[in-house]
């Protein structure tokens, strides 16, 4: 068994009994169908000879029994197979999600969001073919073949051989040909489906940029071409499945005709009762009920295997950070110390951070400033354990962060990143992501949410909206401006009951007036928690306990605002430039 199938089998193992029950019910359903056809044929043929009603009594009861039992068993089989399938898909999605969490976010930087969604939805649903459409029907077909042999062999080995030969063509040859001919197209359709989905997501999220740069038509043409390629691959798989189904139907008719041709001489010779002739023929036809699903399922086996490979590669990825074998109890979050931190991203050509040191305490605001690419965001990621720091370089409550569970470390921090990651939903739902529950486990009341909204400078916006906090803000907050999304992320971080707060470029999309309100909010937040402010701005840092200046990953200056203003260095030069720019920008903003 290849690696992807072992992965699927491991996930399906707890569901083995439900799937076995579904296969048994499917076999029993087909057996009742065979019994119904056989008894009905015998009843009609015998009735034509005008026997007494007593002779037909058992057969009449048998027809009723098999007819009712077949419908009931079909219902139970569908109930069992769908229940087992939904449980398997749910288990698979949970497994994928649990595998993604340890890899997030640094381990997923190369993954496209549309492709990840395709794996969670379409690829997972593709895998239901393994147990429901292949394993179960294959087992049922084998049992049915044995039943047909048991029914026909006493009436003539040639009859049984003809039926089994037809079943072999329909249940073995047709699926094998379907698998061989459809493997490449199926695998290609899975890859193209993921690519089209990823590009469609990129188009929706980046449609403004595409139109602004005049690339909308070119992107549309490229997406249409890839969609046509996907359609052709899926059409080829469908043609293979149709051809295999036609072969199954042909094999069934041919087997029935063969049984008829072989039975006629036996009836003429007196070896076989004439009433048994229609019984043998219709029993053979009924047995082929198990074969058609197999051909279609095996035609899509290439797609199923490709989906299994994609999911297994995602689940099998290494976590972004390691976990200790014997973790310490969760830290209280009293102190954070960075000592001589040097960090290099995997496959990077140089260190992102070199010998960086700083300390963070509740009530202390530390600003890390520097140009783009200086390593500021990397430093925030190391503190949040998005990346693994070298041993002994990052301490939390005096112990190495690697000695704690990663989730326990992150529980000490509230974080608002520069991308202002907003989820599709309402303002209230986004705020509740960061809100700590009350003592009774309930979410905080409106007063707590409103306080955070006012602190972040969103109060005026919320009051203007018709539904207030319950206003729908669209996909990823697209109904809000960039600055409003930034302030919503700040409010969400302020709600989180964590001793430390990391803010990555909180003023990236704010106008001068909003920047002043954000600076005031920072001073309020720093009263009872430690705040690490990651920014390229030098304005508004007068109240910072310490300012650390990074350049190309190294600390080139550090001190208070007044100390750095007196030094001839990067900070003073950048501050003078930003003050000059602000003097020009603020009157223009007021005029607008």
Describe the 3D structure:
- With 592 residues, the protein is of the alpha/beta class.
- The protein folds into 3 domains: 3-315, ABC transporter type 1, transmembrane domain (ABC transporter transmembrane region fold); 330-412 and 502-592, P-loop containing nucleotide triphosphate hydrolases (Rossmann fold); 423-497, P-loop containing nucleotide triphosphate hydrolases (Rossmann fold, 3-Layer(aba) Sandwich).
- It has 20 helices and 10 strands.
- The protein has helices spanning 3-12, 16-47, 53-103, 113-126, 128-152, 157-205, 207-212, 216-268, 276-287, 292-299, 301-315, 376-383, 406-410, 427-432, 446-455, 459-464, 482-495, 512-525, 561-566, 570-591, and strands spanning 336-343, 353-360, 365-369, 394-396, 399-400, 413-416, 500-504, 530-535, 546-551, 554-559.
- The chain has a 6-stranded mixed sheet, with helices on both faces. A 4-stranded antiparallel sheet has the order 2-1-4-5, covered by helices on one side.
- The chain is elongated.
